[in-house]
Amino acid sequence: MSKITFYAHSRSGPSYRVGLALALMQVPHSFELVDLPGGGTRTPEYMAKSRFGNVPCLQDGELYIVQSTAILEHLAALSGKFGGASPAECARIREWLYWDFDRLAPGLFRSRAFKQGIRKAEPAVVEFYRAEGEAGLAVLDNWLTKHQWLANDRLTIADISIYPGVYYAEDGGFDLSKYPGVSAWKARIEALPGYGKPAEVMPAASRA
Ligand SMILES: N[C@@H](CCC(=O)N[C@@H](CS)C(=O)NCC(=O)O)C(=O)O
Fold first, then answer.
1. How far apart are CA 107 and CA 198, in angstroms?
2. Which domains occur in the chain, in start order?
3. Where does ligand 1 bind, in terms of residues with CB under 6 Å?
4. What pLDDT score was predicted for residue 2?
5. Distance between start and end Cα atoms, the chain
6. Rounded Cα gap, residues 168 and 27, in angstroms
7. CA of 14 to the centre of ligand 1 (A)
């Protein structure tokens, strides 16, 4: 395995997807703190690595990868953990990854950003994202009241990708007690060996 460097900031929900994956997969890596609140994602040096000027970014030898779920797919292939074992299994995982980006994560992450004052919007826009988040949680709960995991009856990168939005849901004003299937699944993930909270998997300073 080439040298892996993870560029992130602990405030970032998409970065938590990658931090959690690295921890659960037990992939050795260096951590580079990017000063997200101070504009560190927009410096020419950082944008040479991360073309959209976002965290997270993962360096694997000469390769820089952006977009958290693209990074998760790369890490699953690299580590041989939590990916699909056949084209059908990979398709089942990708269905959840794309659904999350389309229907769940925007509602959860934007609602959190509005509550924290990181993003500002008109009340109707705030309400739109709140309703999207509730609708997404209801779909997730419907599945998780009948299944332990999202895809292939085992922990996969689909669970790892969707967990951070749920972790931050209460910061966004969502009441998870309304979603017992989601709450039980969240507790299952938190009991996994290697699990860490954002500040544990993305420290406050860079480290080799
Ligand atoms: N879809 C991207 C979203 C990444 C993203 O929006 N990152 C935010 C932090 S949560 C960021 O870097 N914002 C800084 C900026 O836009 O300058 C992913 O999943 O990686």
1. 20
2. 4-82+194-201 (3.40.30.10), 87-190 (1.20.1050.10)
3. 12-14, 36, 41-42, 53-56, 67-68
4. 74
5. 16
6. 24
7. 7
Give the span between the Cα atoms of 151 and 168, in whole angstroms.
Answer: 22
Q: Is 66 helix (H, G, I), strand (E, B) or coil?
A: strand
Cβ distance 116 to 170 under 8 Å? no
Sheet containing strand 63-66, edge to edge, reads 30-33, 4-8, 57-60, 63-66
Q: Report d(CA 129, CA 108) in Å as an integer.
A: 8
DSSP, collapsed to helix, strand or coil, labels residue 80 as: coil
What distance in angstroms lies between residue 146's CA and the mean position of ligand 1's atoms? Answer: 32
pLDDT 10s digits, 22-39? 999 999 999 999 999 999
Ligand 1: centre distance to CA 55 (Å): 5
Atom of ligand 1 nearest to the CA of 67: 20
- List pLDDT tens digits, range 45-60: 999 999 999 999 999 9
With CA atoms as reference, report the closest residue to 110 among 51, 173, 179. 173
Q: How many CB atoms lie within 10 A of CB 151?
A: 23
